[in-house]
Structure formats: C-alpha cells, structure tokens
C-alpha cells in the first residue's frame, strides 16, 4: 500500500483524533473570531459630511456669542450708562480717536460735540488730563474728557444732551450735602450719573470696591466743581 493512499491518510487522521489532546478556546478568542466573521456595516455616505457640517456650525455659533448684542435695558439711565461704559472701554483699549487739548481745540470740540465748556477741569495732583474728543452715543452728540490718576485708572467724563433724564432714586448718593448723583454700574465699571441743566453727565472708572468708591467720590467733586458743560448756541 502506497504511503499516500487514502487508507493510510484515514488511519493517520484516526490516530490524531484519538491520541492528540484537545483544548477549549478562551471565551475572548471565540468572541473575537465571531466578530471578525460578521460582515462590516458600512456607514451611510451622508453621515461624515453631515457630522462635519454640524461641527462647523457649532464652532461658528460659539465664536459669535461674544459679539451678539445684549438686550438693552428699558430704563433710559441704565441704557445710557451701558453706552457710556462701552465708550470708556473703547478708549481704555484703543485710546482716543483724536485726542485734543483744551482749551486749544475748544472751538473745534464745541462745533463737533454741540457742547461748550465755560469752565473746564484741566487736571491737578490727583487727576491728569489726557485728552478730549466728541462722541456720538444713543443718537446724541456729546463730549468726552479723559483723565488718569496716580494708579493708572482711566477716568472718563462724558456730557450728552438729555433734558429731564430720570435718575433711579434708590441709587442716589449724598455727597458733601450739595449733590445727589446716582451711582450705577455696568460690566465691572462704576459710573456717577447726574443732570446738569439740559445735559446728562457721567463719570466712569473701574473703581468698584468700597475704598475705590470713596476715592471715586473725590473725583466726582473735583470734576463737578470745575467743569461746566452747556449746550452750544
């Protein structure tokens, strides 16, 4: 009988089945083999572009959130304070658009702002005058004066035409038994607000702590007694 005859192959197979030890395959191996035998499910062709588009839209929304307009308050004093603080912040970050000296540029400043300054606070040992410019806030032409104190705080004085601006009584503060301006705040800045004739006047600075407020009162007095804005004729 040939070494490669069917009979010899059958005999060898029988011996292997009876004489060789058998081992049970581990559970994880059986599971892996079963998973590899299953056909792979193809993702729909539209899924990848859709996920990419959704991710792009989410990034655009998140990036645009800081630039979305905030809801304007109904109270006119609060609305004006928000605009004045925004102008103060712009000057703090970028500087004045066209810093002008007073009284050198007073005629031009009066013409552009519609406000004259019979009296003007030119600075002292506590507040240094750094510039002036016309502003346009809430549809009203006005004037801004800028000062810096010894600690580097920018102090902005703004006058806008607003006859009869209502002030919140609950926020009024008595100063030297002469004035009762309202102390208001927005976005981490404090603002004195008061009426001076037909003008609404503001002083803004990043001074919000109790000790800062006492110094802020002193700045109000210095500017209030030495600055007299009036509508230009």
Low-confidence stretches: none
Computed structural class: alpha+beta
Radius of gyration: 39 Å
Q: Separation of termini? A: 132 Å
For the record, the CATH class of the domain at 76-231 is Alpha Beta
Order of helices and strands: HHHHHEEEEEEEHE
Enumerate the strands of the largest sheet in spatial order, edge to edge or round the barrel.
Answer: 2-3-4-7-6-5
Describe the oligomeric state of these chains in a short phrase.
single chain
Query: How much is the average pLDDT?
Result: 83
Q: Can you count the helices? A: 6
Outline: elongated
CATH topology of the domain at 76-231: Protein Transport Mog1p, Chain A
In the CATH hierarchy, the architecture of the domain at 76-231 is 3-Layer(aba) Sandwich
Number of strands: 8
Quick one: biggest sheet? 6 strands, antiparallel
Task: Kindly state the percentage of residues in helix.
Answer: 25-40%
Explain the overall architecture.
This protein has six helices and eight strands, in the order αααααβββββββαβ. By secondary structure, it is α+β, with helices and mostly antiparallel strands. It has a domain at 76-231: Protein Transport Mog1p, Chain A. A six-stranded antiparallel beta sheet has the order 2-3-4-7-6-5. A two-stranded antiparallel ribbon has the order 1-8. The mean pLDDT is 83.
């Amino acid at each position: 009988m040939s070494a490669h005859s069917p009979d010899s192959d059958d005999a060898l197979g029988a011996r292997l089945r009876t004489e060789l030890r058998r081992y049970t395959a581990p559970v994880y191996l059986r599971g892996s083999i079963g998973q590899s035998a299953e056909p792979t499910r193809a993702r729909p062709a539209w899924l990848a572009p859709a996920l990419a588009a959704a991710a792009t839209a989410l990034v655009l929304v998140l990036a645009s959130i800081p630039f979305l307009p905030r809801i304007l308050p109904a109270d006119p004093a609060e609305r004006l304070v928000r605009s004045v603080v925004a102008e103060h912040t712009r000057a703090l970050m970028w500087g004045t658009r066209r810093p002008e000296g007073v009284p050198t540029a007073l005629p031009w400043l009066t013409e552009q702002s519609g406000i004259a300054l019979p009296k003007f606070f030119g600075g002292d040992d506590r507040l240094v005058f750094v510039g002036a410019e016309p502003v346009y806030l809430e549809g009203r032409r006005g004037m801004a004066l800028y000062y810096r104190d010894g600690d580097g705080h920018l102090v902005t004085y703004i006058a806008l035409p607003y006859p009869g601006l209502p002030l919140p009584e609950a926020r009024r503060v008595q100063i030297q038994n002469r004035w009762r301006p309202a102390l208001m705040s927005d976005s981490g800045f404090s603002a004195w607000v008061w009426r001076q004739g037909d003008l609404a006047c503001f002083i803004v600075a990043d001074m919000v702590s109790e000790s800062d407020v006492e110094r802020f009162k002193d700045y109000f007095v210095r500017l209030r007694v030495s600055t007299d804005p009036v509508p230009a004729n």
